[in-house]
From TrEMBL:
Record keywords: Heme, Iron, Membrane, Metal-binding, Monooxygenase, Oxidoreductase, Signal, Transmembrane, Transmembrane helix
Any one GO biological process: sterol metabolic process
Pfam families the record matches: p450 (PF00067)
Signal peptide stretch: 1-22
Name of this chain's protein: Cytochrome P450 716C54
Mode of membrane association: Single-pass membrane protein
TM region positions: none
Organism of derivation: Avicennia marina (Grey mangrove)
InterPro entries in the record: Cyt_P450, Cyt_P450_CS, Cyt_P450_E_grp-I, Cyt_P450_sf
Organism domain of life: Eukaryota
Localization of this protein: Membrane
Length: 479
C-alpha cells in the first residue's frame, strides 16, 4: 500500500508539472499552433527519435493540423511546418524570419572550440553559422569549374575502390562499400588526403557521429551520444594531424586545391588566422555532410535498381553509350553528366522513396504568423520532406519506384513538393557535388556488374538518417 501511495503521488506531481508547463506556453494571449509539448524536460524527443520522424510528423499532422503543429524535441519548443505551402513559406523567408539552427547534440559535437580558455572568445552564434556557410559558398569549391577539375579523380578513385571491394566477390555489402567510397572522395576533395588506410580507420567514427547528431544528450558510457563524443574526439585528433601536415606541405609550395588549404590561410577582419581546433571542427562538419547522405543515396539506389530489371537496363544502356564514346582509359568529363538524365531520374526517385535526411531545423528570428497561428521569437522550426514525398496528391502511386515520373512528357511534381536538398538561400551547397559522386559511382558499377538484392525486404533502420539493417548484401555478377 505504501508503494502504491508513493506511485500515485509521483503521478500527480508529473501531471501537475505537465499542466503548469502547458499553461505557461500560452502566456501573452498569442494563438500558438495546436499540439503538445509532451513531458517536462524530455518533451516529445523519445517519440521523435525512436518512433521514426516521418511517422511522428504524419501522426501529428493528422491529429492536430496538416499545416503546422507545436512540439518540444531535442530540448526546444518547435513549430513543425508541413506541406508545400510550408516549404515555400520557409524557403522564401530565410533571414527574414529564420536562421540556421543546429540541435544541441550537433552543437556539442562540432563546436569544441567554444568555451575553451585557451581559445579566442566565440562570436555570436548567428555570425558563426554565417561564416561557416561561407567556407564552401564563397571560394567556389563546389561550383562547376572546381568540380570539373575533380571529376576525373572522382572517376578513377571510384573505379579503383569498386575493383578492390567487388572483384572476385560473389556477395558484397553495399552500405559499407558506399561509405568507404564517399568518405574517400570527401577526404580527397575537402582535405586533399588520399590515404585509404587512414580513411578506413575513420569510417566507424563518422558513423557514430552521424547517429549522435540527433540523439538524447546523455553522456553516459554505452549511450549513442557518448559514443558520438568519443568518435568526434578521435576524428578531431586525426584532423589536427592532417592540418599540421597540410601547413608544412603548404610552406614548401604545395598547391591549394582543397577547402582545408583555404581554411588555413583565411583570416578574420582583424587579420587573425582560424585556430586549428576550430578548423578541425568545421572540416568534421563538412566531411560528415559530404559523406553520410551520399552514401545512403547510393545504397538505396543500388537496392531499387537491383529490384527492377527494366530500370537497370535503361540505366545501363545510358551509361554504356557514354562509355562507348570514350577512348581506352579516358575518364568522365563534365559534358558526360548531362547525358545521364535517366540515371539522375533514378537517383531522384531514390531520394523521394528514402530521403537521406528527413529534415532540418531553423531558429525563429522574429515572431511571425502562419496558417492563423503565432510562432514566437526564439522557437525552433522543423521542416521535413516526409510531409510531401509520399503524398498521393502530389505523386501518383507514391510507393512505386518510377524514375520516369520525372521525364519531360510526365506531369512534374508541384512546386515545393520534392525538396531533398532544401530550397531558398540555404539550399544544400553540396547538391552538385553529390550528383557527380552518385552518377560517377553508377556509371562505373553498371559498366562492370549486374546484381541481385539478397533480401528485398531488409529492414530500414535509423531515425533522421536511414540505413539498411544488414548493410544491403548484394550478389554481384561481373561482365
Amino acid at each position: 500500500m505504501e508503494f502504491l501511495g508513493v506511485a500515485i503521488s509521483l503521478a500527480l506531481i508529473l501531471l501537475t508539472l505537465v499542466y503548469v508547463s502547458r499553461r505557461r506556453c500560452d502566456v501573452g494571449g498569442a494563438k500558438l499552433p495546436p499540439g503538445s509539448f509532451g513531458w517536462p524536460i524530455l518533451g516529445e524527443s523519445i517519440e521523435f527519435l525512436f518512433g521514426k520522424p516521418e511517422k511522428f510528423v504524419g501522426d501529428r499532422m493528422e491529429k492536430y493540423s496538416p499545416a503546422i503543429f507545436k512540439t518540444k524535441i531535442l530540448g526546444e519548443k518547435t513549430a513543425v511546418i508541413c506541406g508545400p505551402k510550408g516549404h515555400k513559406f520557409l524557403f522564401t523567408n530565410e533571414h527574414k524570419y529564420f536562421t540556421a539552427f543546429r540541435p544541441h547534440p550537433m552543437q556539442h559535437l562540432f563546436r569544441s572550440y567554444q568555451g575553451k580558455g585557451a581559445q579566442p572568445q566565440p562570436q555570436p552564434a548567428q555570425t558563426q553559422r554565417a561564416d561557416e556557410s561561407k567556407i564552401i559558398r564563397q571560394p567556389g569549391f563546389l561550383k562547376p569549374e572546381a568540380l570539373t577539375r575533380f571529376l576525373g579523380k572522382m572517376d578513377s578513385i571510384t573505379r579503383h575502390l569498386l575493383e578492390t571491394h567487388c572483384a572476385d566477390k560473389e556477395v558484397a555489402e553495399v552500405y559499407p562499400l558506399s561509405k568507404t567510397i564517399t568518405l574517400t572522395l570527401a577526404c580527397h576533395f575537402f582535405l586533399g588526403v588520399n590515404n585509404p588506410e587512414r580513411i578506413a580507420r575513420l569510417v566507424k567514427c563518422f558513423d557514430d557521429v552521424t547517429v549522435g547528431m540527433h540523439s538524447l544528450m546523455l553522456n553516459v558510457p554505452g549511450t549513442i551520444f557518448c559514443r558520438a563524443n568519443i568518435a568526434a574526439a578521435a576524428i578531431r585528433k586525426e584532423l589536427i594531424t592532417v592540418i599540421k601536415e597540410k601547413k608544412e606541405a603548404m610552406a614548401f609550395g604545395s598547391p591549394m586545391h582543397d577547402i582545408l588549404s583555404h581554411m588555413i590561410v583565411v583570416t578574420d577582419p582583424n587579420g587573425e588566422s582560424v585556430p586549428e581546433l576550430e578548423i578541425a571542427d568545421k572540416m568534421m562538419g563538412l566531411l560528415t555532410a559530404g559523406y553520410s547522405t551520399v552514401a545512403t543515396t547510393i545504397t538505396f539506389l543500388m537496392k531499387y535498381i537491383g529490384l527492377s530489371s527494366e530500370v537497370y537496363e535503361k540505366v545501363r544502356a545510358e551509361q554504356m553509350e557514354i562509355a562507348a564514346s570514350k577512348k581506352e582509359g579516358e575518364l568522365l568529363e563534365w559534358e558526360d553528366m548531362s547525358k545521364m538524365k535517366y540515371s539522375w531520374n533514378a537517383t531522384c526517385e531514390t531520394m523521394r522513396m528514402v530521403p537521406p535526411l528527413q529534415g532540418t531545423f531553423r531558429e525563429v528570428l522574429t515572431e511571425f504568423n502562419y496558417a492563423g497561428y503565432t510562432v514566437p521569437k526564439g522557437w525552433k522550426v522543423y521542416w521535413s520532406v516526409s510531409t510531401t514525398n509520399k503524398n498521393p496528391d502530389y505523386f501518383k502511386d507514391p510507393e512505386k519506384f518510377n524514375p520516369s515520373r520525372y521525364d519531360d512528357g510526365e506531369s512534374p511534381p508541384p512546386p515545393y513538393t520534392y525538396v531533398p536538398f532544401g530550397g531558398g538561400p540555404r539550399m544544400c551547397p553540396g547538391k552538385e557535388y553529390a550528383r557527380l559522386a552518385i552518377l560517377t559511382f553508377l556509371h562505373n558499377v553498371v559498366k562492370s556488374y549486374r546484381w541481385e538484392v539478397v533480401d528485398p525486404n531488409e529492414k530500414v533502420e535509423g531515425d533522421m538518417m536511414p540505413e539498411p539493417q544488414k548493410g544491403l548484401p548484394i550478389l554481384f555478377y561481373q561482365y
